[in-house]
Amino acid sequence: MSDIGSGPYGTVRDAVVLVSAGHIEWIGHEADAPEGAVSSARETIDLDGGWVTPGLIDCHTHLVFGGTRAVEWERRLGGVSYEEIAHQGGGILSTVRATRDASLDELVRSARGRLGRMIDFGTTTVEIKSGYGLDLETELRMLEAACSVRDTGVTVSPTLLGAHALPPEFANDRSAFVDLVCNEMIPQAAAARLADAVDAFCEGIGFTPAECERVLHAGSEAGLAGRLHADQLSDLGGGALAARAGARSADHLEYTSEAGARAMGEAGCAAVLLPGAFYFLGETQKPPIESFRSHGVPLVVATDANPGSSPTTQPLITLNQACVLLGLTPAEALAGMTVLAARVLGFDDRGVLRAGLRADLACWAIDDPSELSYWMGGAPASAVVAGGHRLR
Ligand code: NIG
Ligand code: FE
Fold first, then answer.
1. What is the mean pLDDT of the chain?
2. How far apart are the CA of 293 and the centre of ligand 2, in A?
3. Largest CA distance in the chain
4. Residue range(s) occupied by CATH 3.20.20.140 in the chain
5. Ligand nearest the Cα atom of residue 309
6. 250 beta partners
7. Right CATH for 15-53+351-390 from 3.90.226.10, 2.30.40.10, 3.30.470.20, 3.80.30.20
8. Mean pLDDT over residues 65-85, rounded?
């Protein structure tokens, strides 16, 4: 995709991308390339008719966690719902137990393995949330683990999701837990530069809109951007709350009302669609895509990689699900995991292929960009470049 390109993808055919010092130095038709630039390049990648896209930007993941929830998933297949399991002390809280038990090293090792698989499929920027610690020490350890996987070459944007579930030790004192999130977790994560954003789970099994509003407010006081898990299982007005609080996005949104979509459009709050969770939880209520389109709400797509509702490390399957399950066009889905996802994370130096921007590139052995969401998974990227360095 490029400013100089055409069609829904901004295609440039027979193109050359020149990279220097980590950035795109020039992009355009091969015939117009600066004289001798290609023949004198230190390293070249010949795509042999393949395609280059911006490196994929996965703006909503929970990639750091202990354990899995495979056994719980078997119970769900037997008819027990996600919410019932949560009410029985399982769900998010079972991953909290496994994460509290895991050392920093163990968290880093398992997250790095999952991130490696994402890199294979073109991801060069990833947001990673905490939220399986629910105490100060483990939340910070999760964020530290998220920052540690930067050694892969991928850009990591960490998000503090302290208000993800109420931990058992606060079962009788919700407001004391929200105090802990607002008065300790957020300021400490911000001071240690371990978080770029805050998030909260606005839901019956999570936190009330008023509690989430406090968290978003504390985040903005600390200079952190806002995100919100909103309207996933019921309509609590989370989309409108995110808009009102100036959050960059509201995420999930299966139950968002027309009024919520309008408020998001007016506030410039993006809709982050998570079709992996919609699929894996067997949801039937779809996010109001047409309302988002009509109110000019950016449609963003992310994997939501996590052990409970979206155990995936495969962004291309997510693109396929966004089209097949939620009705996005392949071009919308790709924009939702590149240029529009960059904005949700506050990056203005990536997400499109343009001279001067970061050289984050994914190369694909495909004949048409629609294949990125056509194959249910497809082949790994043929090459991946982040900040000018080859990751694969
Ligand atoms: O984005 N909805 C809340 N949080 C996660 C799921 C977390 C879990 O089940 O472990 C989500 O779907
Ligand atoms: Fe999530």
1. 97
2. 22
3. 71
4. 56-344
5. 1
6. 228, 271
7. 2.30.40.10
8. 96
For the residues 312-324, what does the mean pLDDT come to?
98
Q: What is the pTM of this model?
A: 0.98
pLDDT tens digits for range 16-56: 999 999 999 999 999 999 999 999 999 999 999 999 999 99
Q: Write the pLDDT tens digit of every residue in 267-314.
A: 999 999 999 999 999 999 999 999 999 999 999 999 999 999 999 999
CA–CA distance, 259 with 118 (Å, rounded to integer): 36
Q: Are 256 and 250 in contact (CB under 8 A)?
A: yes
The minimum-distance atom of ligand 1 relative to the CA of 206 is 3
Domain span(s) for CATH 2.30.40.10 in the chain: 15-53+351-390
Indicate which residue's Cα is closest to atom 8 of ligand 1: 308
- In this prediction, residue 2 carries a pLDDT of 42
Q: Is the dihedral of CA 345, 116, 189, 107 positive or negative?
A: positive
- Protein fold of 56-344: TIM Barrel (3.20.20)
Q: Percent of the chain beyond pLDDT 70?
A: 99
E-state strands within the chain: 15-20, 23-29, 51-54, 56-58, 123-129, 155-163, 197-202, 225-230, 249-252, 270-273, 299-301, 361-364, 383-386, 389-390
Give the pair of three-digit tokens for residue 355: 């001279």
> Strands of 56-58's sheet, edge to edge?
56-58, 123-129, 155-163, 197-202, 225-230, 249-252, 270-273, 299-301
Closest ligand, as measured to the CA of 76? 1
The length of the chain, given as a count of residues:
392
User: Looking at the predicted structure, is the pLDDT value of residue 3 above 60?
Assistant: no
Task: Say which amino acid occupies 174.
Answer: R
Report residues near ion ligand 2: CB below 5 Å.
304
Residues 122/128/133/139 CA torsion (nearest 10 deg): 140
Atom nearest to 281 CA in ligand 1: 12
The token duo for 225 is 């951007």
Q: Give the distance (Å) from ligand 1 centre to CA of residue 220.
A: 23
Using alpha carbons, select from 159, 109, 117 the residue that is nearest to residue 315: 117
pLDDT tens-digit series, residues 153-203:
999 999 999 999 999 999 999 999 999 999 999 999 999 999 999 999 999
Helix (H, G, I), strand (E, B) or coil at 283: coil
